[in-house]
Amino acid sequence: MNFSEFLKSKRAELNLNQVELSKKAGVGLRFIRDVEQGKKTIRLDKLNQVLSLFGCEAGPVKQSARNYT
């Protein structure tokens, strides 16, 4: 599941529209729309602001050297 799908499903579970979610998370409506539309580059700090409402956090994933061969 990607961030777009996750955010849409969590927002639906809480019965929130995009405007309500943006206000609760303290981010702009444009940011919520960008994430839900699958924008490739988003700010991690803002994403974590939104994800914190759901008890989640995004961060880097350490990959082993064998993933690069």
Description:
The chain has 69 residues and is mainly α. The chain has a single domain (3-54), classed as 434 Repressor (Amino-terminal Domain). It is 51% helix and 0% strand. It contains 4 helices and no strands. It has helices spanning 3-13, 18-25, 29-36, 44-51. The longest helix has 11 residues, at 3-13. It starts with a helix and ends in an 18-residue tail after the last helix. The relative contact order is 0.15. The model has no long low-confidence stretch (mean pLDDT 91).
What is the secondary structure topology, with strand pairs?
Blueprint: H1 3-13, H2 18-25, H3 29-36, H4 44-51
| Shape descriptor | globular
Strand content: under 5%
Give the C-level CATH assignment. Mainly Alpha
List unreliable stretches of 5+ residues. none
Task: Give the biggest sheet.
Answer: none
Q: Average pLDDT value? A: 91
- Radius of gyration, in Å, reads 13 Å
Number of helices: 4
How many runs of DSSP E, i.e. beta strands?
0
**SSE pattern, N- to C-terminal:** HHHH
| Proportion in helices | 40-55%
Distance between the ends: 25 Å
